[in-house]
Backbone:
């Protein structure tokens, strides 16, 4: 217990120290939200990876899908690395950096408002982002607290509150730069931690070959007479597995907190280096998490006394509780690192979106419009400081709402994330990606995709989830592309002068 407490205290002190160190760079909006658009490839790549993988993956997804698909769940990690990291950087990195800097966009809703010349789009996008980032944040709180409860025997409720306070402190102090620096530190802990924990768990099972042999004799849930599905290449349910791969991999390209990392990176050469770093990080962390979760059936499941069903969020903690104290301390730090980085990214994205896209909506001059007279520098500086103060207040507000949900979560962690990612990426992915490449995307098409992504997710939820939230999210993401293409072909085009202005950045 002494080792666990000591390492955790050191970790938390370092996190707050980084917040204090970065405080000076968080005095302006550009510095607080984007780190001055001057963040290098290593910090950006680690910020992308640590925001991507949190306790939702390590505890919720690895446990639930490892139990359901066995070793084939490792394909989810491969998909996360290839689609969610490599392709995300290749497809979005350069174009996002250039266009958002060209049109002076600081958030994803701001991009929609400026790129498609609609302040209404900007407002609605900010509301969607704020509302649907909350269940994801609640899922992260829940996951991190399950592990913390296992490692320290502290009641779940206390764990959630402690994590909320600590996350608020260092994000409020240092903004994006503090988040990026802490993400780098936390990413190193995650890399070392996941490799060490995998070796420890396999060693406890008598080695990899022995663990796989044990898994191969476990009968299928669908047909008890059939063995070996959980140790096979594609698992017992390949199509269900594909839905999870799509949701958790493709979704990163439509999430505000993920895409925002490309806004702040230094230059194009940094994007190339960041692509490689981020992909390797994802292979190790995501692949390792799901590979570890694939051995969950070798341990006795935890049964929820109220429902009589398996408590999926307790599978990974049950696997790790038998490890030596020093390794449990490492696991706690691993999940703390993964979760606090994601939480920091989520709360910063939500607060900046609400502040810049709802409360203070700066109107940019577009081609053919007259630029408004510049305001006094002193007044401008006061407005900037006021915006930063509002963002810090909203960080607290967002954390409190997420905390209330996390204290009484309505469903499993994986389902919370499915609802969040399905609505956000279902609404944003297609119009954002196509808007970077295709001049023909119309404002009406963006509205149609917003209605599609949010509508499908909400209707499915209100009907009691007749479609599994995971599969529903995947359908929302993929379906957004034909919605945008078809709507763009049949609705009025945007003015060519305005579109030429948006795409001029790629000719430089």
Residues:
């Amino acid at each position: 217990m002494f080792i666990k407490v000591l390492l955790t205290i050191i970790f938390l002190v370092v996190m707050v120290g980084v917040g204090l160190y970065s405080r000076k760079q968080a005095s302006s909006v550009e510095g607080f939200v984007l780190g001055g658009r001057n963040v290098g490839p290593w910090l950006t790549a680690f910020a992308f990876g640590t925001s991507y993988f949190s306790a939702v993956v390590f505890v919720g997804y690895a446990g639930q899908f490892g139990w359901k698909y066995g070793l084939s769940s490792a394909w989810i990690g491969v998909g996360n690395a290839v689609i969610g990291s490599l392709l995300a950087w290749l497809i979005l990195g350069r174009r996002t950096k250039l266009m958002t800097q060209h049109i002076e966009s600081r958030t994803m809703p701001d991009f929609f408002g400026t790129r498609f010349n609609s302040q209404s789009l900007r407002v609605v996008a900010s509301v969607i982002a704020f509302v649907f980032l909350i269940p994801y944040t609640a899922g992260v709180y829940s996951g991190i607290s399950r592990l913390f409860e296992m490692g320290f025997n502290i009641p779940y409720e206390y764990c959630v509150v402690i994590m909320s306070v600590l996350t608020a402190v260092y994000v409020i102090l240092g903004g994006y730069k503090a988040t990026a620096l802490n993400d780098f530190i936390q990413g190193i802990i995650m890399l070392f931690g996941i490799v060490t924990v995998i070796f420890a768990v396999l060693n406890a099972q008598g080695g990899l070959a022995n663990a796989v042999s044990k898994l191969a004799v476990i009968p299928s849930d669908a047909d008890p007479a059939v063995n070996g599905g959980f140790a096979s290449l594609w698992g017992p349910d390949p199509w269900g597995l594909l839905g999870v791969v799509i949701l958790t991999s493709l979704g990163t390209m439509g999430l505000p907190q993920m895409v925002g990392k490309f806004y702040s990176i230094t230059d194009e050469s940094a994007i190339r280096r960041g692509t490689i770093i981020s992909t390797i990080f994802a292979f190790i962390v995501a692949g390792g998490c799901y590979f570890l979760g694939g051995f969950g059936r070798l341990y006795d499941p935890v049964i929820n006394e109220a429902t009589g069903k398996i408590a999926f969020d307790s599978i990974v903690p049950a696997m790790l509780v038998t490890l030596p104290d020093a390794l449990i301390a490492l696991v706690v730090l691993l999940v703390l690192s993964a979760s606090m980085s994601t939480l920091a990214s989520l709360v910063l994205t939500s607060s900046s979106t609400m502040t810049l896209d709802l409360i203070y909506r700066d109107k940019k001059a577009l081609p053919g419009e007259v630029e408004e007279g510049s305001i006094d520098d002193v007044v401008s500086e006061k407005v900037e400081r006021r915006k930063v103060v509002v963002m810090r207040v909203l960080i607290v507000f967002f954390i409190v709402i997420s905390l209330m949900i996390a204290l009484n979560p309505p469903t499993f962690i994986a389902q919370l994330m499915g609802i969040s990612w399905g609505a956000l990426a279902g609404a944003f992915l297609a119009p954002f990606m196509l808007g970077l490449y295709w001049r023909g995307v119309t404002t009406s098409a963006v509205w149609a995709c917003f209605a599609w992504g949010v509508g499908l997710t909400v209707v499915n939820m209100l009907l009691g989830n007749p479609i599994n939230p995971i599969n529903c999210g995947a359908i929302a993401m993929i379906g957004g592309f034909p919605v945008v293409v078809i709507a763009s072909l049949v609705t009025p085009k945007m003015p060519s002068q305005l579109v030429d202005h948006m795409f001029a950045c790629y000719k430089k």
Remarks:
- Confidence is low (pLDDT under 50) at residues 370-375.
- Residues 2-363+380-412 form a domain with the Sodium/glucose cotransporter fold (CATH 1.20.1730.10).
